[in-house]
């Protein structure tokens, strides 16, 4: 009865869009402020810190990011490490998810809970052991050392997520493949893997974002500026003097590293929605 009342409907609509506006402001304002700060020159930054728009837009901070530090190399390191981490994690997690989702064996439930426990384990707790292992293997200041350390938190996440998706794939697909004489691996890679594409894209993108933004391991396992990834590189920016804080450089670098993530989400948004909803609905 109340839903048909025009006054109630109008008030509800106003409240709805008010909540949407507040959420959008909360989400987008930090990124807008980073863009605004990055377009303000260092000389004007103090005087215009609280202004909504820079009086004179300048791209000098974006230029200085690549001049004052090996930021191009840091970007390459982040791309290679994050991509390598995701590819290895997805390859291993597809095999593990197929076994955990479609086969019955003793101790499977305990194994799943162990994977879940590892995924929520604090990074600092394993830092000393990882440091010793990476030093022993000679992987310090290398892509391999970072990929190995990043897989500690990406692999449990991808295994757990893909396992939930694999469980919902109809068993008839496997049975038809077995009737045609396919082996378990052929069934996985030729029959089930195409069906898993939305889940792979979603899981891979989330793992990529986590690896791209990782700070603690990257800071610990790299001392050479040219070997560092983007997060520690940004943290190590310095001003022209010890009394100057490089806010402009930091914001410019933050904008540069955020844009690729936004583009990836926009490109794969349909797959992301399909991947997030597919595992929640019984097939």
TrEMBL record:
Residues 75-268 form the ABC transmembrane type-1 domain. Keywords: Cell membrane, Membrane, Transmembrane, Transmembrane helix, Transport. It comes from the Bacteria. CDD domains: TM_PBP2. PROSITE patterns: ABC_TM1. InterPro entries: BP-dep_ABC_trans_perm, MetI-like, MetI-like_sf. Its main location: membrane. Pfam families: BPD_transp_1. The chain crosses the membrane at residues 12-35, 75-98, 110-134, 146-166, 187-209, 215-235, 247-268. It is a multi-pass membrane protein. It is found in: Cell membrane. Belongs to the binding-protein-dependent transport system permease family. PANTHER family: INNER MEMBRANE ABC TRANSPORTER PERMEASE PROTEIN YCJP, MALTOSE TRANSPORT SYSTEM PERMEASE-RELATED. This is Carbohydrate ABC transporter permease. It comes from Deinococcus rhizophilus.
């Amino acid at each position: 009865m109340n839903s048909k009342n025009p006054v109630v409907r109008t008030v509800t609509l106003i409240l709805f869009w008010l909540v949407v506006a507040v959420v959008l402001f909360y989400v987008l304002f930090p990124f807008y402020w980073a863009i605004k700060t990055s377009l303000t020159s260092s000389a004007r930054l103090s005087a215009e810190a609280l202004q909504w728009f820079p009086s004179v837009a300048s791209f000098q901070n974006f230029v200085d990011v690549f001049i004052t530090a090996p930021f191009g190399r840091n970007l390459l390191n982040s791309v290679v490490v994050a991509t390598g981490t995701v590819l290895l994690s997805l390859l291993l997690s597809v095999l593990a998810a197929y076994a955990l989702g479609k086969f019955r064996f003793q101790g499977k439930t305990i194994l799943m809970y162990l994977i879940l426990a590892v995924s929520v384990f604090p990074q600092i707790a394993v830092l000393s052991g990882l440091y010793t292992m990476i030093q022993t293997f000679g992987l310090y200041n290398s892509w391999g050392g970072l990929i190995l350390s990043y897989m500690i938190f990406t692999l449990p996440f991808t295994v757990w997520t893909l396992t939930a998706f694999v469980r919902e794939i109809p068993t008839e697909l496997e049975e038809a493949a077995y009737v045609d004489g396919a082996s378990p691996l052929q069934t996985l890679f030729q029959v089930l893997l195409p069906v898993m594409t939305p889940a792979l894209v979603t899981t891979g993108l989330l793992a990529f974002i986590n690896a791209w933004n990782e700070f603690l391991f990257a800071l610990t396992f790299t001392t050479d500026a040219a070997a560092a990834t983007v997060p520690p590189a940004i943290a190590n920016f310095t001003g022209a003097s010890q009394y100057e804080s490089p806010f402009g450089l930091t914001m410019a670098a933050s904008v540069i590293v955020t844009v690729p993530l936004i583009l990836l989400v926009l490109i794969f948004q349909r797959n992301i929605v399909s991947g997030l909803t597919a595992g929640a609905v019984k097939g």
